[in-house]
Design a protein that fits this description.
Largest sheet: 2 strands, parallel
Number of helices: 16
Structural class: mainly alpha
Helix content: over 70%
Shape: globular
Radius of gyration: 20 Å
Number of strands: 2
Distance between the termini: 42 Å
Number of domains: 1
Order of helices and strands: EHHHEHHHHHHHHHHHHH
């Protein structure tokens, strides 16, 4: 029996899932102790429930994919609209170093995946699918490239395999970030946990903060500001839909969220530096954080965990090894390259989302860590642009290059 949830029911359930996540994280000590993001905790509870319904009662619940995509586009639009050139310069050398660490791991990920696939007697391209195609690329890249693998390279079930691998990455990426950061912070005595009474809403002025920093900070906004900001979001999302259709099949074809992000960057800096119009960062932060939470909740509650259950043992081995290799890479490479500081530990939590999940997971990871140990302005400057923009372009080039070798 199949139940279809419309957009409104999907939003209602997503909000309920977020509330469940808040209760679960605050009631189960180990989840709070290891900084598991609330949307991840609530989403996994919902995913387990849908799994039980499917296995025991043959009931499937499908949520509205369009509303989920809209919240995803709103999140990436907020990343773009927050990308002031002034703030981008603040990233400086640290941004380049972290980008180098992330890009280098894209290559490591594919070497591990392809090598293990060969050792286990699988097609090397299956190793690529369980590499950066899905783990760094996420569900959108998995779906797009999965069809290419099926059509042009004869990999049957590549789309399902890709979705299952991306699902694994999304779950593990959200579960790994907090524990990895906590281990590094405690081992090197980088910070102490904030006292429960310390106000999370205490933050510098908005002009001194980065996107998604201080998500629980009270932001005073007016209806006029909100309407203007919604207009900017609408422009960027409309542009993303237009370019997705126009670029289909062309050499410059890109996922919708990349177009939304690019439009946000251009629109923000054109308005700010050419027309000298003040940008409403407070509204952008509110809409961005709300979209982030709802998108993550929807993505996780929509997971079909039986796809993971149906994976062959060899593929599960590859995915587990990928997570283990990332953990080693974070400890021995990223943490040291970024200076073995508190900021470096928070960036490692973010990289768990970037290279083993999705940018929203990365943001949720660093929010969970900074809520426990205190602010990391550098992480909130670097993670959104690295994960949402630069790495997707690099990943597309790497995938195409490897396919040209095997083609």
């Amino acid at each position: 029996m199949n139940y279809e949830m419309d957009a409104f029911l999907t939003i209602i359930i997503a909000v309920f899932v977020l509330m469940v996540g808040f209760l679960v994280v605050n009631k189960i000590r180990i989840l709070k102790q290891y900084n598991i993001p609330e949307p991840v905790a609530g989403g996994l509870v919902a995913a387990v429930i849908t799994y039980i319904l499917f296995k025991n009662f043959n009931i499937t619940v499908n949520f509205d994919a369009n509303i989920q995509q809209i919240f995803m586009l709103m999140f990436f639009t907020s990343v773009g609209l927050s990308a002031s050139l002034v703030k981008l310069k603040e990233g400086g050398k640290a941004l380049l170093l972290f980008l180098g660490c992330v890009v280098a791991f894209v290559f490591v990920q594919n070497v591990v995946g392809i090598s293990l696939a060969k050792v286990l007697g699988l097609d090397p391209l299956i190793g690529l699918i369980t590499g950066s195609v899905t783990l760094t690329g996420g569900h959108g890249t998995a779906g797009a490239w999965g069809m290419v693998f099926e059509r042009d390279y004869g990999i049957q079930g590549a789309v399902v395999l890709g979705m299952a691998s991306a699902t694994f990455g999304l779950v593990i990426g959200g579960m790994m970030g907090g524990p990895v950061a906590k281990f590094l912070i405690r081992r090197h005595q980088l910070a102490e946990e904030l006292a429960p009474s310390s106000g999370r809403n205490e933050a510098p002025p908005s002009s001194e903060t980065a996107p998604f920093e201080y998500p629980e900070k009270t932001r005073l906004i007016t209806a006029d500001d909100a309407v203007k900001t919604l207009g900017m979001f609408a422009i960027c999302i409309s542009f993303a839909y237009f370019m997705t259709i126009a670029a289909k099949g062309q050499w410059f074809e890109l996922p919708s969220f990349v177009w939304a992000l690019m439009c946000g960057v251009i629109l923000r800096n054109f308005l700010e530096h050419v027309l000298k119009i003040e940008i409403f960062d407070r509204c952008i932060d509110v809409f961005g954080n709300a979209s982030l939470s709802l998108f993550l909740a929807m993505a996780l509650m929509s997971l079909q965990l039986w796809l993971l259950a149906d994976l062959a043992g060899a593929l599960v081995i590859i995915l587990i090894v990928q997570a283990f290799v990332l953990a080693l890479y974070l400890y021995f490479v990223t943490f040291r390259v970024m200076g073995k500081s508190y900021d470096a530990a928070v960036l490692c939590a973010g990289q768990c989302g970037v290279n083993l999940g999705a940018t929203p997971t990365a943001i949720a990871n660093i929010q969970a860590v900074t809520n426990t140990y205190g602010p990391s302005h550098k992480a909130f400057l670097i993670i959104p642009l690295t994960g949402a923009f630069f790495v997707d372009i690099v990943n597309a080039v790497v995938i195409q290059s490897i396919l040209s070798i095997f083609g």
